[in-house]
Design goal:
This is Fibronectin type-III domain-containing protein. By secondary structure, this protein is mainly β. The chain has no helices and 89 strands.
C-alpha cells in the first residue's frame, strides 16, 4: 500500500467508508488496492436491549467524528449503504458516534466508540443501541358519555413498542395503568369502569426496549351526570399522494378510527372498500389538470359524526415518474412460519405515479391482480427457509424487486404462544431494594421455549421459571416479559411493581437536646431523607409527653415541661407507602436556672489581621461562661478551606482569597446563649515586576549575595538583579561575541562566577561566556566547549560545568580548575536540558529525538542508564530532597514523574494548561510549580494527590521558573519581564 507521511507538513487523511443495509450487513468486500489514504470500514450492529434487530425505522445515518477541538459531521441516506468522513489525521485518538435517524430526524439508535488511531486499513464494529422513544404530546380528553372518555395524543416517535395510558380518579397522585397500547396509536376510548360526574386524570408515555419516555403533561376531565350523545368525529389518516401523475386514475388509501366504529368512508362520493381494521382503499378517475380529492369518514354513532380530508393531485400525461411501485405482503407476512408447502400468497401493490402495469412472481406462478390487491398460489421448494421474489412494474417502466421470506414446517404447526405467569408478583408488589430479582413462570406445550426477555434482557432459566436482575426506579415500574417459542410464537405480558425504600433519619439521637428546663420551652428538630427522593415525608410522635408536639412535615419538636422528670421520646418518619424509621432519645427536665450567655474575653483587635497567600494563618480565640457550661466554637464565615478545631483557627489562603476576608466566629453554651466575634483578615500577595529591554531566556541565582542573573539571547547581554531590592544592578553586554547567551548557571568554585552558553553558528557558537562576580564591572571572558551549546549546569561541589549541545550531539565536562574540557559523552542526538542532583552523584539530560532521559554518573562521566519516555521531552526539573525528577514534553500538557533513586518512571502528574514550559518544586518537595507557555498561567500541583492546588494568571509566555527563599522567580518572555511573587 502506498502511503506517505510528512510530519508537521502534511498528514495522511483517514476516510470512513460505511456500507449498510436493512439486513444489518455492512462492509466493503472489494480487495484493497494501492492507495494514498487509509480506509476504515465500519460495521454497525443495531441492538434493542441485548437483542440484535433489523433497524426497519432507520431512514438516515449521521456520523460525528471528534478529535481535539475538531468535530466533523456527515449524514447520508440509509438506503445509500455508504458514507464518507474525511480529513482525519492518522495515528490520533478520535471518537466516532453513529446515530440512526427516522424520517422525522429523530435519533432512534445511537452508539459511540473511541479509537486510538489507525495507520493502516482497518475494520471495526460499533454497537448502536436503541434509545428511548420521544414523549407524546398534546393530550386531549373528551367525555363522550357519562361512562366513556375519548383520550387522544400526538405520537412523536417512530420506535415505540406501544403507549402506556394511566388514569387516576379524583386526583393526580394515584395513577394506575389502563392500557399498554400499540405502535403508532394516537387515541383510546376509555370505558373501563368509569363513573358519572367524576373527575379523571390521565397521562401517557411511550415505551420500547430501551425504557419509557417522559410522560406528557397530564390533563383532567369530568364525566357528565347523564349519558350524552357521541359528538366526537372519527380520526382519519389518508396516505400522501404525489404532486402529479401521468395516468387518469389513482388509488387512495388510509385508515380511520372512532370509539363507536366506522360506518363508511367515501372518496369523491364513491364508497371505499373498508377492511375490518378500518383501513380503506378506493380507485378514482382523474380529470386533466388539478383534481381535488375529498375523503369523508363517518362514525357508527347515532349522530353519524364525520371527518373530511382534502388532497390535491395534478393529472398530466407528460409528468415524470421515477418512483417504482410499492409491494406489501398481507398473508403470510415476512418471516412467518407456515405448515404447508402449498400456499396462497396475498398482498397489495400500488403506484401513485403512472399506475401499476403488472406484478410477477419470479417462480413462474401466475399472479391475480384486482385493483391494488394481488394473490398467487405457489408450491414451496423445501422444508425450512424459502424465498419468493416478486417484480412489480409501473406504466413508466419503473420496477422494484421484493422478496417474501417464509419458513416451512410441515410437522404439527405450533400456533399457540407461550403463557406468562407472574405468580406472587402481583400488580403493585412492593420492592424495598434495587436491583430486584424478577421471577416469572412460562408455560409452553408446543415447540418449546426459545428465549425469554425480561425488561429487554435475556432471562436465566431454571425449570419452567425464568429470572433476571432488573434495576428499578422509585415508585411505579413496568416489568415487561416477552416469551418466544421455537416456532416463532410470542407471548407478552406485563405487571407494574413499586420500588419503595425505607426513609432514614439523618439526625442522630445523640444530636438531640437531652436537657429541658422547668417552665421553659424545649425545642429541637429531627430531619430525615428518603432514598427514593420523596420530599413529602411525615413525622409523628410515637412516645413522649402528651403535650409534646411534632411538626408533621418539618419535624420541629416543641414542649414546655411543668414537672421535673426524665422521659423517653420516640418519633417516627414515614413515606406515602407507610415505610418508616424511628428515633428514640431521653430528655432530663431540670430546675430552672438563669442562663448567662458566654462571652469572648478579647475583642477583634487581639486577632491577627493579615495573612499571606500560600502560608499558614494560625490564631486562637478565647471565651468564658459564668455558668461553667461547656462551650463550642463554630465558624460562621463561608470560607471552605478555613478550619476551626476547638478554639484554634488554621487556614492557608489561595490566590482567590486576595483582599480583606470578613471572619465571624460564634461561641455557644448549648443552652441558647452565645456570643459572636468578628474581624477582617487582609490577605496579602506580593508580585514585583522588573521590566527589561529584551526578552529574557534563562535565569540562575547566587544564593550568597541574593543576586539573580539572567541571559538574553535577543539582547546579547547578561542582567544582574538584586533580589532584596527587586532592582537591576548591572547590564553586561556581550557585543564582542557573535552569538547571544542562552543557558546560564552559577558556580562558587574558587569564587563566584556565571557561565552561559553562546548558542549559534557564528564564531562563538562553540563557546561559553564566563563572568567573574568578585569584581565590577563584571568582566567577561570566554572558554571553548563544543559546537552550539544550549544548556549548562554547575556541579555543586567539584568545580565542573556540564554543557548540552544541539549540533554536536554530546555533553561536555569542563573543569574550572584546569580551565579545559576534561571529558565528553556522545549522546547521538540533540540534548536540550540537563540537571544535577543536590548531592552531585548523578546528572539527567534530555535526549530529544530518541525520546529518552539519559542518566549520567558524575564520578565516571558515563551514561549509566537510558529511560524511555512516551514523547519528545523538552525540559526537566528535580526536587531538593533528591527523591523525584519531572519531565516536561514539547508542546504538551503532560508531566512525567521519575525516581532519582531507582531511575524508573513513577507515573504521570495531572494534565494541566495548554503547552507547558518549565517547572520547579517547593523547598519541601510537596508542590510542583509549572509554567503554561501558551495559557499564560502558573499552576501549583499537589504532588502526592496529583491535583491542581492553585493557579496564577501572569503575562504573555511565562517560561523558566525558580523557587528561592519562599519566592517564585518567573521569566515572562512575551512582556520582557522578570516577576517575583510570594509562594502560593
Amino acid at each position: 500500500m502506498r502511503r506517505t507521511l510528512f510530519i508537521a507538513v502534511a498528514l495522511t487523511v483517514v476516510s470512513f467508508l460505511l456500507y449498510c443495509s436493512k439486513e444489518n450487513l455492512l462492509g466493503n468486500n472489494q480487495p484493497a488496492e494501492s492507495k494514498d489514504s487509509v480506509s476504515i470500514t465500519t460495521n454497525i450492529l443495531f441492538k434493542q436491549g441485548q437483542i440484535q434487530v433489523s433497524p426497519d425505522s432507520v431512514d438516515s445515518i449521521r456520523l460525528t467524528v471528534t478529535y481535539g477541538n475538531v468535530t466533523l459531521t456527515n449524514s447520508f441516506s440509509f438506503s445509500a449503504h455508504h458514507g464518507t468522513v474525511a480529513q482525519i489525521p492518522v495515528d490520533i485518538q478520535f471518537s466516532l458516534k453513529i446515530e440512526g435517524l427516522d424520517n422525522t430526524g429523530t435519533v432512534i439508535y445511537s452508539g459511540t466508540q473511541i479509537f486510538d488511531g489507525f495507520s493502516d486499513d482497518a475494520s471495526v464494529t460499533i454497537t448502536a443501541s436503541q434509545v428511548t422513544s420521544r414523549a407524546p404530546s398534546n393530550l386531549r380528553l373528551t367525555a363522550q358519555t357519562s361512562t366513556i372518555i375519548q383520550v387522544q395524543w400526538n405520537d412523536n416517535s417512530s420506535n415505540e413498542l406501544g403507549f402506556i395510558i394511566e388514569r387516576s380518579q379524583g386526583n393526580d397522585s394515584n395513577y394506575t395503568v389502563i392500557d399498554t397500547g400499540i405502535p403508532n396509536q394516537k387515541a383510546l376510548a376509555d370505558d373501563a369502569g368509569l363513573l358519572p360526574a367524576t373527575i379523571y386524570y390521565y397521562r401517557v408515555c411511550a415505551f420500547n426496549g430501551a425504557g419509557k419516555s417522559a410522560y406528557l403533561v397530564e390533563q383532567a376531565v369530568q364525566t357528565p351526570l347523564q349519558q350524552r350523545i357521541d359528538s366526537i368525529a372519527p380520526i382519519l389518516f389518508v396516505s400522501a399522494l404525489p404532486e402529479s401523475v401521468s395516468v387518469d386514475s389513482v388509488t387512495v388509501t388510509g385508515k380511520a378510527h372512532d370509539s363507536s366504529g366506522i360506518y363508511s368512508i367515501t372518496v369523491n362520493g364513491q364508497t371505499a372498500t373498508l377492511s375490518a381494521d378500518s383501513s380503506f382503499s378506493a380507485k378514482i378517475r382523474l380529470n386533466l389538470g388539478k383534481d381535488t380529492i375529498t375523503v369523508i369518514a363517518t362514525d357508527n354513532s347515532s349522530r353519524k359524526n364525520d371527518t373530511t380530508a382534502k388532497l390535491y393531485v395534478i393529472y398530466d400525461p407528460t409528468a415524470s415518474d421515477n418512483t417504482p411501485p410499492v409491494v406489501s405482503f398481507v398473508s403470510p407476512i415476512n418471516n412467518d412460519t407456515v405448515g404447508s408447502l402449498s400456499l396462497t400468497l396475498t398482498g397489495t401493490v400500488n403506484d401513485l405515479g403512472s399506475g401499476v402495469d403488472s406484478i410477477k412472481c419470479l417462480t413462474g406462478a401466475t399472479v391475480s391482480l384486482i385493483g391494488i390487491n394481488w394473490s398467487v398460489s405457489v408450491n414451496l421448494l423445501t422444508i425450512g427457509l424459502n424465498k419468493i421474489t416478486f417484480m412489480a412494474l409501473d406504466k413508466r417502466g419503473n420496477r422494484i424487486y421484493d422478496t417474501l421470506r417464509v419458513f416451512a414446517d410441515t410437522t404439527t404447526l405450533d400456533t399457540v404462544k407461550p403463557v406468562i405467569s407472574f405468580g406472587g408478583l402481583t400488580a403493585g408488589y412492593m420492592f424495598t431494594s434495587t436491583p430486584a430479582q424478577i421471577t416469572v413462570h412460562i408455560t409452553e406445550n408446543g415447540s418449546g421455549l426459545d428465549t425469554v426477555y425480561i425488561n429487554g434482557g435475556v432471562g436465566t432459566v431454571s425449570g419452567s421459571d425464568w429470572t433476571r436482575s432488573v434495576t428499578l426506579t422509585p415508585d411505579s415500574n413496568r416489568i415487561l416479559v416477552l416469551a418466544k417459542d421455537k416456532a416463532g410464537n410470542r407471548g407478552m405480558d406485563s405487571v407494574f411493581v413499586i420500588l419503595n425504600r425505607t426513609p432514614q433519619f439523618t439526625t442522630l439521637n445523640s444530636n438531640l437536646e437531652a436537657i429541658a428546663y422547668l417552665n421553659q420551652q424545649y425545642r429541637d428538630t429531627v430531619a430525615a431523607t428518603d432514598p427514593d427522593g420523596a420530599t413529602s415525608l411525615t413525622f409523628t410522635k410515637q412516645a413522649g409527653p402528651s403535650d409534646m408536639t411534632v411538626g408533621i412535615t418539618n419535624g420541629i419538636i416543641t414542649w414546655t415541661p411543668i414537672v421535673i422528670t426524665t422521659i423517653r421520646c420516640t418519633v417516627i418518619v414515614s413515606d406515602k407507602y407507610q415505610e418508616s424509621d424511628t428515633i428514640t432519645w431521653t430528655i432530663n427536665v431540670l430546675d430552672t436556672t438563669p442562663n448567662i450567655s458566654p462571652s469572648f474575653i478579647h475583642d477583634s483587635t487581639a486577632m491577627t489581621a493579615t495573612a499571606t497567600i500560600g502560608s499558614l494563618y494560625r490564631d486562637t480565640v478565647h471565651a468564658t461562661d459564668s455558668n461553667n457550661d461547656a462551650l463550642t466554637f463554630s465558624l460562621i464565615s463561608n470560607i471552605v478551606e478555613m478550619n476551626l478545631t476547638d478554639s484554634i483557627i488554621n487556614w492557608t489562603p489561595k490566590i482567590k482569597d486576595t483582599g480583606v476576608k470578613p471572619i465571624f466566629i460564634r461561641v455557644a453554651d448549648g443552652r441558647g446563649g452565645y456570643d459572636t466575634l468578628s474581624w477582617g483578615i487582609h490577605v496579602l500577595f506580593n508580585i514585583d515586576t522588573i521590566q527589561l529591554s529584551w526578552a529574557p531566556n534563562r535565569i540562575t541565582v547566587n544564593p550568597d549575595s541574593n543576586q539573580l542573573w539572567l541571559s538574553s539571547w535577543a539582547g546579547a547581554a547578561f542582567v544582574g538583579i538584586d533580589l532584596l531590592a527587586d532592582s537591576i544592578i548591572s547590564v553586561v553586554p556581550c557585543l564582542n561575541y557573535q552569538d547571544g547567551p542562552l543557558g546560564v548557571c552559577y558556580s562558587n568554585y574558587q569564587g563566584p562566577k556565571i557561565y552561559s552558553s553562546l548558542r549559534g553558528n557564528g564564531r562563538d557558537g562553540g563557546s561559553m561566556a564566563l563572568i567573574e562576580l568578585n569584581t565590577r564591572p563584571f568582566p567577561i571572558s570566554k572558554v571553548i566547549v563544543n559546537l552550539n551549546p544550549i544548556g549548562c549546569i554547575s556541579h555543586p561541589t567539584n568545580g565542573f560545568i556540564y554543557t548540552t549541545h544541539e549540533t554536536a550531539h554530546n555533553i561536555t565536562e569542563y573543569s574550572e580548575a584546569q580551565a579545559r574540557i576534561t571529558r565528553t559523552i556522545n549522546v547521538g542526538t540533540e540534548t536540550s536540558d540537563i540537571k544535577i542532583t543536590k548531592n552531585g552523584n548523578k546528572a539527567y539530560a534530555v535526549a530529544q529525538n530518541v525520546n529518552q532521559l539519559k542518566v549520567i554518573s558524575s564520578s565516571t562521566f558515563t551514561i549509566s542508564k537510558s529511560i524511555t519516555l512516551p514523547a519528545k521531552p523538552q525540559n526537566i526539573f528535580l526536587d531538593n530532597q533528591d527523591l523525584y525528577g519531572y519531565v516536561i514534553y514539547e508542546d504538551s500538557r503532560t508531566i512525567t514523574q521519575f525516581s532519582l533513586t531507582s531511575d524508573q518512571i513513577v507515573g504521570q502528574l495531572i494534565q494541566v494548561g495548554n503547552s507547558l514550559g518549565f517547572g520547579t518544586t517547593s523547598s519541601d518537595g510537596e508542590f510542583a510549580y509549572v509554567t503554561d507557555y501558551q495559557g499564560n498561567k502558573i499552576y501549583k500541583i499537589n504532588i502526592s494527590s496529583k491535583t491542581i492546588d492553585d493557579s496564577l494568571s501572569v503575562g504573555v509566555h511565562p517560561a523558566e521558573i525558580l523557587f528561592n527563599n519562599n519566592k517564585l522567580i518567573v521569566v515572562i518572555e512575551g512582556n520582557h519581564q522578570i516577576i517575583i511573587t510570594d509562594k502560593f
